[in-house]
Amino acid sequence: MALALPPIDSATDVLLVIDIQNDFCPGGALAVAGGNEIVTMANALMARFGRVVLTQDWHPAGHRSFASAHPGHAAFDRIQMPYGGQTLWPDHCVQGTAGAAFHPELDTRAASLIVRKGMDAAIDSYSAFFENDRRTATGLGGCLRELGVRRVFLCGLATDYCVKYSALDARRLGFEVVVLLEACRAIDLNGSLADALTDMRQAGVSLA
Fold first, then answer.
1. 199 catalytic residue (yes or no)
2. What secondary structure does DSSP assign to 45-102, as a single string?
3. Is 162 known to be catalytic?
4. In this protein, which residues make up the domain named Isochorismatase-like (predicted)?
């Protein structure tokens, strides 16, 4: 079934497809339940937009967000990093590995830009716009402004982490934002999905 969307303006709307990568799909190192189910929807959405941006987690080996970089800690522990609280993850989306590749059924030909994030070994990066220090920009915000984009639609993985942070940052930068929830899936770690939906609503994000 096709997702119901408001009228799309190819000049001022953009679709961000967040992290539909092998490691976030079933069988991957940090699998999101049902992550593979959104690939067909993402492909259909990309065909309806004039501008499409893909994001890709692209961590160096030994990234400080990995539990393996912190002896005595396990995946999903919370620790303090210089930039704030950090959930420790299983090693995932390591640069050049099969796990970091886009899902093989994702039609990447529609993308006009691919934003790779999490490349600084010392700082995790959920958002398409800023690393987790909340200051270091990826450059995507400026690029979209230069293109005249006013409204950002999002789909992808995971609703409560990279989709949420990208949506919040897009609002912070002054864009209208719509999250297409049917074309997202969540990790839902300790209630993180409910918290994410609340945070996005409070920030003025439209949840479609």
1. no
2. HHTT-S-EEEEEE-BPTT-TTBGGGSTT--TT-EEEETTEEEE-B-S-SBTTSGGGSB
3. yes
4. 14-205
**Residue 85: other Cβ atoms inside 10 A:** 9
| Letter string b/e over residues 14-34, b meaning 16 or more CB atoms within 10 A of that residue's CB | bbbbbbbbbbbbeebbbbbee
Q: Three-state DSSP class for 37?
A: helix
Q: Is 169 a catalytic residue?
A: no
51, 22, 56: which is closest to 39 by C-alpha?
Answer: 22
Catalytic choice (25, 93, 162, 184): 162
Residues in the chain where the model's pLDDT stays below 70: 1-2
Question: Which residue in 57, 93, 117, 184 is the catalytic one?
Answer: 117
E runs forming strands in the chain? 13-18, 52-57, 78-81, 84-87, 113-117, 151-157, 176-185, 206-207
Task: Identify the pLDDT of residue 3.
Answer: 75
Walk me through the domains of the chain, giving residue ranges and CATH numbers.
Answer: 13-58+102-207 (3.40.50.850)
Report how far apart, in Å, the C-alpha atoms of 200 and of each of 77, 83, 146, 165 are.
24, 22, 25, 9
